[in-house]
Design goal:
- It is a single chain.
- The chain is α+β, with helices and mostly antiparallel strands.
- It folds into 2 domains: 234 residues, Porin (Beta Barrel), CATH 2.40.160; 143 residues, Sporulation related repeat (Alpha-Beta Plaits).
- 17% of the residues lie in helices and 38% in strands.
- An 8-stranded antiparallel β-barrel has the order 1-2-3-4-5-7-8-9.
- The longest helix is centred in the middle third of the chain and has 24 residues.
């Protein structure tokens, strides 16, 4: 088993065992640069191979085996789970060995300068296992890739400091195959900046990095690096309440047509009550004068006809063909949020529909053919759900209606009856 394998297994268990309940690796955009980022990192670089005093921990004397390396990465976000990185590494390595396994003296050490190019991918375990969550800000990920590395190594005698072996040179480049793999975690700060920690083991397909052949069939080195990433994505704010001020965070003001319709409904309700009270008036009293028959008189009939009652009732209860109403709860200028995100944000039980009209992405709930039912839902949102800006949107044949000027709104209760007044003949009474 490779000397670094136990630590890699332990790190995997620690990271997966910790609870990672919370932002995403940035909001994905449609622009080319929206999904690109750059990273820089640096930290201790430790060698594993023939010339190493301890199995895992680096020695600090007589030669300090702790050396450092740094990386620069250009990243392309492919989704909320996968990201592709092109990475360049430059750093140093060192190792020593005082005695062989049989106890005979070795007294050798090496120092190496190396540079590496690789292409790797990161797999966001937080979004893969726990699913995407726009409120999450801490992530755990894995990485694996392939590349080429070149080094210049000098092996020396510890006692005399004389060079006893070399591998590689600055004059010629002889790249060797390398496979970087590891784990990392990072915090996302306002979409634009990520701070993280990444540990990778970089295995080689050759046993010459320390200019010593034998013992270990493959040399390797590990880099524990602190990194910072800058995202080129357009700032969009993962919290709905922190969007930029020029973007609307609630629904626009109620449309004039719908406000007039609601007022008309109130007037119709009042008219219905008045008309219902007319129907309950007692009939005119019968005259008891028996001396002479009553003359035929014409009396205006104030009782509404059955047609008038049915016409008004239909306005209140019977839906108009092709017209429906929905309650709008949210609107946004950019295509940033899904219907499920708005539903979760406002804790709604109804399905949230998303549409684009008039330069806005609009989010509505419900679908009613009766304006009164839509008004009840709007009132409930104003009170229980605390969505004070919710309002009713009118649709004709499934398309959002264009608001009409206020002076074009007609209320049926003010229209004249073309038939005029209705009269009836009062019957005469005999003696």
């Amino acid at each position: 088993m490779h000397k670094s394998t136990p630590l890699l297994i332990l790190l995997i268990l620690l990271l997966l065992g910790s609870r990672v309940d919370s932002q995403t690796n940035g909001t994905l955009g449609n622009r080319f640069f929206s999904n690109w980022s750059v990273s820089i990192s640096g930290g201790p670089n430790i060698f594993f191979g023939d010339l190493k005093e301890y199995n895992f921990l680096p020695a600090t004397s007589p030669i300090n085996e702790i050396r450092y390396a740094g990386t620069f990465s250009l990243n392309r976000q492919l989704g909320h789970v996968f990201m592709l990185r092109g990475q360049f590494l430059f750093g140093q390595l060192a190792g020593e060995k005082l005695k062989y396994k049989d106890g005979s003296p070795c007294n050798q050490y090496f120092e190496s300068t190396l540079f590496e190019l690789n292409l790797n991918t990161t797999i966001n375990f937080s979004n893969l296992i726990l699913r995407y969550n726009p409120k999450r800000f801490f992530f755990v990920y894995g990485t694996i890739g392939a590349g080429a590395v070149n080094w210049i190594t000098k092996k020396r005698d510890i006692t005399t400091n004389a060079i006893i072996g070399t591998d590689g040179s600055w004059e010629t480049i002889n790249p060797h195959f390398v496979i970087p793999a590891g784990l990392g975690a990072y915090f996302s700060i306002k979409d634009k900046l990520n701070l993280g920690l990444e540990w990778t083991v970089r295995g080689l397909a050759i046993d010459r990095l320390d200019a010593t052949v034998g013992g270990f069939p493959y040399d390797s080195y590990s880099l524990l690096a602190f990194n910072i990433t800058y995202n080129f994505n357009k700032r969009s704010g993962n919290k709905l309440s922190t969007a930029s001020p020029q973007k609307q965070i609630g629904p626009p003001p109620p449309q004039p047509l719908l406000a007039a319709e609601i007022a008309a409904e109130k007037q119709k309700e009042q008219a219905a009550k008045e008309q219902a009270s007319y129907l309950k008036l007692p009939p005119p009293p019968v005259s008891k004068d028996t001396l002479q028959p009553k003359q035929l008189i014409l009396v205006p009939d104030t009782t509404p006809s059955q047609e008038d009652v049915m016409e008004y009732t239909n306005i209140m209860t019977v839906p108009i063909k092709g017209i429906s109403y929905r309650v709008q709860v949210f609107a946004f200028k950019e295509n940033t949020y899904s219907g499920n995100q708005i539903k979760e944000k406002f804790k709604l039980s109804q399905t949230v529909s998303k549409e684009f009209s008039g330069g806005w992405y609009r989010y509505t709930i419900g679908s009613f053919t009766n304006l009164i039912e839509a008004k009840k839902l709007m009132t409930e949102l104003h009170t229980s759900r605390e969505i004070a800006d919710a309002f009713i949107a009118k649709y004709i044949n499934g398309k959002r209606a264009t608001p009409a000027p206020p002076h074009t709104v007609k209320h049926s209760k003010y229209s004249k009856n073309s038939k005029g007044k209705i009269y009836y003949r009062k019957p005469a009474h005999k003696k």
